Amino acid sequence: MRRSDLGEFEELVLLTIATQFPDAYSVAIAEALEKDLKRTITTGATHAAMQRLEKKGYLTSRMGESTAERGGRRKRLYAVTVAGGKILEEVRQIRETLWSRIAPGAIPEIQSLQK
Amino acid sequence: MSKSNKPYLPPRWLDQILKVCCDPDQLEEIMGNLHERYQLRKVRSSNKVMLFWFYFREVLAYLRPQFSRRIRIDNPNHLTMIERHLKTSTRSILRNKTLSLINIGGLALGITCFLCLYLWIDAETSVNKFHKHAEELYTVYFTETTPQGKYGNYEIPFNYVDTNMDGSKILANELKAQFPEIREATTYATSYELPWGHACTFRLKDKRQKFEGSVAGPGFFRLFSFPLLAGDPETALSTRSGIAISRSMAESFFDSHSDAMGQTLRYENVRDFVITAVFEDVKDNSSLQFDYLINWDLTHNDNILLSSSGINTFLLLEKSASPEALQAKLQDFLQDRLNSWEMDVTLGIQPFKDQYLISNFVEGKPLNGRIEYIRIFSVVAFFILLVACINFMNLVTAQSIKKAKEMSIRKVIGSSRYSLIMQSLTESILMTVIAMILALMLTWNFQPIISEITGKHLIMPLHLASFWTLILMLVVSIGCVSGFYPALFLSSVKPNLVLQRNSKPKGKSAWLQKGLVILQFSISMLLMVATIVVSRQTHFIQNTHLGYDKENLIAVRIEGKLTERQQYLLLKQELQQMPGIQLVDRSSEAPHNMGFEMMPPFEWQGQAKGEGVSFLPTSVGYDFVEIMNLQIKEGRNFDRRIASDSTAFMVNEIALKQMNMTDPIGKWISAWDKRGPIIGILKDYHASSLHDPIKPLIVDVKEDLDFGLILVKTQPGATIEALSSMEKAFQEFNPNFPLAYSFVDDEYSALYNSEMIINKLSNAFASLAMVISCLGLLGLAISAAASRIKEMGIRKVLGASVSNILTLFSSGFLRLIATAFLIATPVSWWLLNTWLDGFAYRVHLSWWIFIVTGLITLVLALLTIGIQAMKTAASNPVTALRSE
After folding, report:
1. Rounded to whole angstroms, what are the CA distances from B527 to A33, B249, B773, B853?
2. Is the Cβ–Cβ distance between B171 and B187 less than 8 Å?
3. pLDDT, tens digit, 9 for 90 and up, residues B332-365
4. B629: region left, alpha or beta (phi > 0 left; psi from -120 to 50 alpha)
5. pTM above 0.90, yes or no
6. Least CB-CB distance to A69: which of B29, B39, B61?
7. Is the ipTM of this complex over 0.90?
8. What pLDDT digit, counting tens, does each position of B608-649 carry?
9. Which residues of chain B does A73 touch, with a Cβ-Cβ cutoff of 8 Å?
10. How far apart are the C-alpha atoms of B397 and A113, rounded to whole Å?
11. Residue B87 to residue B79: CA distance in whole angstroms
12. Chain A: nearest CA to B37, how far in angstroms?
């Protein structure tokens, strides 16, 4: 796996898009991330990440209907592609393998949590 | 969500920024996102400031290359576009060879002027900034308040009588002991007793040479960062017999500077010094200049070099110290100790790095100085650049007829306005780059000339990144400023109008063009008037009859054996019989700069109580009046046959007036330890620079004068003979000292160094500004001729004479120049009057200067336009009209 293909923020965005399907679009993703990460996330940053992901082939998009709250402007709806799903799965596996290899006591808090 | 159909709207100007910057294809989505997010936030929070702040961040987040309109590096079209623009620009530059040449040439000249001035200004402003502690170095100055007003000076009285204790104290040591925020303090003095620094003689075996040096406190090298080649900065000046010398001084006595350490040099034939340090030669960028340094304590205690003036005190403050607080404490420092001083004296500190530029005192505080000239020439540099840019703009706009057609066709074919603007800008930036290359080459060649004019060693700092940044910034800003307006103007032309041949620049652009020509010529005329006035003033300074004869007068310092009266008299006798020499005498002061004004104790017969006059005192020999060719208004000259004349005085007319003395001859004056009659009144003469008014003068005869100058009057035209005579005589009577002489008229000129520099600089730059302006006019005339050739053709066919056409063609331009004249005259009158006010004796601004300036400009302009006008008028109308 070319890990450099998926930044940490990109990974979060990609996952959030998956959770919001089929109504995933920039503003909603930014809002959700803001709630999860507990820090201000601008639409611009999210949007930029989504564009990058689309270019890499992990996302597809299409234009949605126009809505009143956007001043009559249409929104772009995103969906995770097969490649996107694959890379998410890879990342997840790597993480889980790593977690499983951690010996008890290697990370102090974890032990105390387990107790 | 808001129920109303009209949702809350975020600040519109932020949206506007996005609309300008963002890719139009993505704009809908971006704006949608932003506005929706804004609504969401609005529902949650009503804090307007926070809302704005969030929105601002949102907008900022969209200002990234990914969403931006233009910069898309991955789009290969842009590269080819730039390539295409460059190609088209080159073609268009080559097509209009004359105009391009005028354009680039004018711009190159302008930039050259700018760069030359920049070099000078940069050199001036960087003086003294090379010291490691430059930011924490301060100079002490003092202000004295007398009934006449406040005076300030850097020259500190180095000791003062402490009323509570015996003996004298050195200010630097006292201050350092008193105030903990002072890390180091040192005294520094140029070792002179004459108004110009004099060189002292050093000897090693048979080698004798003169060097100019200074005395400094032991901490000197801890304050100032003069690099040492040998020796330790801590101990370099800590011994009384130690001397620190420069690399070139070391090399003139020894094979290399490392051989010099520990060697002994004989000083003025009276004393030996051991070399304790060798420092790198002091460069131009230091205001402290010296070949050697000796210990201050030595000179102070042993009285071998008793200076009464020219002593500076420098402080190095702790980084954390507040100079303002120290300043406030210093105000009172002297007051507690100086009960005996009659004058009210306070101390102040000024950053050392400013001392070079700001050294004139106004109301007792340092306020201006050289910085004035720097400011003036910064403005001049900017103006010249402006004139060059205006040319550029005007010429490009003037070509708009031709260009407008080209642009229209491009537009019709389908070019976007953006691409047209880029095309124009590329062209102007390309031209600027060519001009810049030319200018750099020209400046490179002008370096020696500019160095000579300014008396500084100026080199283009090609190795500095900051210099190249400046060059780059100049290219971009000149290119954009001068190309932008024409670009916008041309790209906005409506193709249908142009293609229907309705193609003259109209309305706004025509006015702008006219305005710019007026501005350009106003600046040129202003510079020209300034040149005339400055050179008249310098000429006036050089040629005013000073009241004494400074020609053929050579000055030599009294030193060595010549301080003995008998030896001097023998030398004088010998010299006066030698070829080329008319007369020899002594004076305690230099004729062109009778430096030190002294306050009482001077008393005179009939003096009212409390009345005091500050005199310029001079002690001379019996032949002084004759050698200087002074006029005696009343009474008689000193006479060596009258014994009582050794206590007699002469004063000048101003002194008489200030002493309120009538019928002065025979009345007594008391000065120093003498009391004697006034025997003669000297006609007023300029005993110092023309910046100052004539001051009261008191002259007495001192037969055992052991300091000051020997004045030698040579026979006109026999200078070389006289000098070889002097060489011989001095070798015989003062063998231990090499002869060092100076010409009084040279020394007089040196008083006006800054004025001379200004004169030369303004001469050069005013003429260049005029040339640039005329180049611009020529360009305008050429394009005007091109655009009106058909009109002229028709007029000719209908019977207009050549002179008719000439008048018609030129009158428009001449009107502009007349307007420029009307603007330039009052402005330059005011500016130059202000400058001239700095002189006590000055020329007056006569009306003819302005008329002459106007006429010169007119003639130049007529010549420039005339050639084009003649061409137009003489051309065959058939050629012009054939295509119709």
Report:
1. 66, 44, 12, 10
2. yes
3. 776 666 555 555 777 888 999 888 888 878 777 7
4. left
5. no
6. B39
7. no
8. 777 777 788 888 888 888 888 888 888 888 888 888 888 888
9. 28-29, 31-32, 35
10. 78
11. 12
12. 6
